[in-house]
Amino acid sequence: MILSIESSCDDSAVAITEIATKKLLFHKKISQELEHSVYGGVVPELASRLHAEALPKILEECESYFSKLKAVAVTTTPGLSVTLVEGVTMAKAVSVALDIPVIGVNHLVGHIYSLFIEKEEQFPLTVLLVSGGHTQVMEVKSFTEIKTVAKSMDDSFGESFDKVAKMMNLGYPGGPVVENLAKNGNRKRYDFSVPLSRSPLIAFSYSGLKNAVRLAVEKATEADYVDIAASFEHIATVHIVQKLKKYFKNTPPKRFAIVGGASANLYLRKNIEELLQPYKAELLLSELKFCSDNAAMIGRASLEMYEKKLFSSLDELVVFPRSSI
Ligand code: KG4
Ligand code: ZN
User: Residues enclosing ligand 1, CB less than 6 A?
Assistant: First the structure.
């Protein structure tokens, strides 16, 4: 079995995955949403302290598995350095105490493997990753062959939901609340411009849309928020659909996946399903409980690394806030 740890942002999570069967034997996550909600976003130092409390508590619950562990896996990149280091420190302690190797996992690869929890992987695959930290399209041929073909030049899709929620005093994280509010709104009432719609670039940008929403919120009353949320969600989604359409012109999709916390967004899912129809491309989605950050996806990704013996020495196991992917 492999014990996996995730602490790249505001979720403390630990999982146990059986190597031979890929079965998820244990998974627990303690989210810090409530604690960060009053600040309208994640406060790194607070997140770090909360991980230091939560991770050892979850680890204690795994004690019965300790004698069967063959490795410990942990997210090392990308993320907040002060929170990544909490998971990495615990992984090193487990590695020394149980005399097992340690595996450093890229969080973005973890999100890709959230599609394959308790399943065989399916490659090649075109992946749209939409989370709080990333908006990017990747061509994935195998575990080690991942090429980013488009990414955000500024804010991410999920982050723009968080910021819009903050403008409307709706708390953190903004994705689920803004999506919920948008359901009953008029998506055409606010005519926000679609980012980069005239640009030939296949890239994403959310800072302009965010500012347009800010101006609308400043002039609005609370009764208008529902239409602002609906119009914002619509344009945020149209932007992704437009850029994917452009990308598909030269690279038609065969198998496509949406992963990351914001892949739980049903409006985005529906629009991408429609976009894929003419290509008859298969759409893969993670289970809703594995869209947002979790340790099950880190454990699943680490199985590939375990098989290839991609272990790190304790000195090599350091955190990198920015991903190389
Ligand atoms: O993958 P994740 O848990 O953390 C990162 O790796 O960043 O993603 C969290 C992000 C947050 O920005 C959150 O607001 C967004 O995903 N999110 C959503 C939805 N659910 C979560 N965004 C839009 N619609 C949603 N339903
Ligand atoms: Zn994530």
Answer: 9, 131-133, 158-159, 161-162, 173-176, 179, 260-262, 264-265, 292-293
The sheet that has 125-130: what strands, in order across it?
Answer: 146-151, 135-140, 125-130, 255-259, 282-285
Banded pLDDT at 149 (limits 50, 70, 90): very high
CB 272 within 8 A of CB 72: no
Measure CA 20 to chain center.
26
Tell me the CA–centroid distance for residue 228 and ligand 2, in Å.
26
> What confidence score (pLDDT) does residue 323 get?
87
Ligand 2 centroid to 134 CA: how many Å?
8
- Whether the model pTM is above 0.85: yes
Give nearest CA residue, ligand 1 atom 14: 175
pLDDT beyond 90 at 324 = no
Q: What are phi and psi of 76, to 5 degrees?
A: -115, -20
Contact 239, 204 (CB under 8 A): yes
Cα 255 to Cα 142, 270, 276, 277: the distances in Å are 14, 16, 9, 12
Nearest to 192 by CA among 178, 202, 207, 172: 207
In the numeric block, the tokens 């819009």 are attached to 164
CATH number of the 125-285 domain: 3.30.420.40
What is the CATH number that goes with domain 2-117+293-307? 3.30.420.40
Helices (H) and strands (E) counted in the chain, each on its own, are 10, 10
Where in the sequence of the chain do the CATH 3.30.420.40 domains occur? 2-117+293-307, 125-285
Sole residue written with tokens 């239409």: 227
